[in-house]
């Protein structure tokens, strides 16, 4: 009965001014809107209008590779950039490769051909700016807001710009 489902993205602000986008797939728009609004309210945030935080995100492809499996950082970086990646970052445990949305599949396929294994691959909103929360109480509320949103049956993905 999937013809009755629609994808809706709800936007708002969490505690500490963190921008939040909640991507849902629902067969009951009113129920889902109520559930999402309730969680925003319960944890000190507020649901906004469509577009109120979308401008704080950019659609990007992200590919995560385990550093332990590929220790030659320069080789991984060159392979990523040669494949058409936009950006490459070496984090503590992983390499994070960023692509333009239209290049995502080509970059992923090129890296797969070079025998790379991925920890995660995704195509979705990535924050343009980040928001820090210095108050531990607000940080705890933000953590709970994200957890409770992700527990909702209709929620597919929660995006935010919280710099944890």
Can you describe what's shown?
By secondary structure, the protein is an alpha+beta fold. It folds into two domains: 2-55 and 128-160, YebC, transcriptional regulation domain (Alpha-Beta Plaits, 2-Layer Sandwich), CATH 3.30.70; 59-126, YebC, transcriptional regulation domain (Alpha-Beta Plaits). The chain has helices at 29-42, 73-82, 104-113, 136-151; strands spanning 6-13, 19-26, 46-47, 57-66, 87-90, 94-99, 120-127, 155-160. A hairpin with a 5-residue loop joins strand 1 (6-13) and strand 2 (19-26). The longest helix is centred in the last third of the chain and has 16 residues, at 136-151. It is globular.
Could you provide a short overview of the structure?
With 164 residues, this protein is of the alpha+beta class. Helix content is 30%, strand content 32%. It has 2 domains: 2-55 and 128-160, YebC, transcriptional regulation domain (Alpha-Beta Plaits), CATH 3.30.70; 59-126, 2-Layer Sandwich (Alpha-Beta Plaits), CATH 3.30.70.
Radius of gyration: 18 Å
The CATH homologous superfamily of the largest domain is called YebC, transcriptional regulation domain
Q: Uncertain regions: pLDDT < 50 for 5+ in a row?
A: none
Largest sheet: 4 strands, antiparallel
Spatial sequence of strands, sheet with the most strands: 3-1-2-8
Shape: globular
Query: What's the count of strands?
Result: 8
| Domain tally | 2
CATH architecture of the largest domain: 2-Layer Sandwich
Report the CATH C-level class of the largest domain: Alpha Beta
In percent terms, what proportion of residues is strand? Answer: 25-35%
Mean pLDDT across all amino acids: 96
Give the termini distance in whole angstroms.
39 Å
Query: What is the H-and-E element order?
Result: EEHEEHEEHEHE
* CATH fold field value of the largest domain: Alpha-Beta Plaits
Number of helices: 4
Helix content: 25-40%
Which structural class fits the helix and strand makeup? alpha+beta
């Amino acid at each position: 009965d999937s013809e009755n489902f629609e994808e809706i993205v709800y936007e708002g602000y969490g505690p500490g001014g963190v921008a939040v986008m909640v991507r849902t797939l629902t067969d009951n728009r009113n129920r889902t809107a109520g559930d999402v609004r309730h969680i925003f309210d319960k944890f000190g945030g507020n649901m906004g209008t469509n577009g109120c935080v979308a401008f704080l995100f950019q659609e990007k492809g992200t590919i995560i590779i385990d550093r332990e499996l590929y220790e030659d950082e320069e080789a991984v970086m060159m392979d990523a950039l040669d494949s058409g990646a936009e950006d490459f970052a070496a984090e503590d445990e992983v390499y994070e490769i960023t692509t333009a949305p239209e290049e995502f599949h080509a970059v992923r396929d090129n890296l797969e051909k070079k025998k790379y294994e991925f920890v995660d691959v995704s195509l979705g909103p990535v924050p343009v700016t980040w928001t820090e929360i210095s108050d531990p109480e607000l940080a705890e509320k933000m953590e709970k807001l994200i957890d409770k949103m992700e527990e909702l049956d209709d929620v597919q993905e929660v995006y935010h710009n919280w710099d944890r």
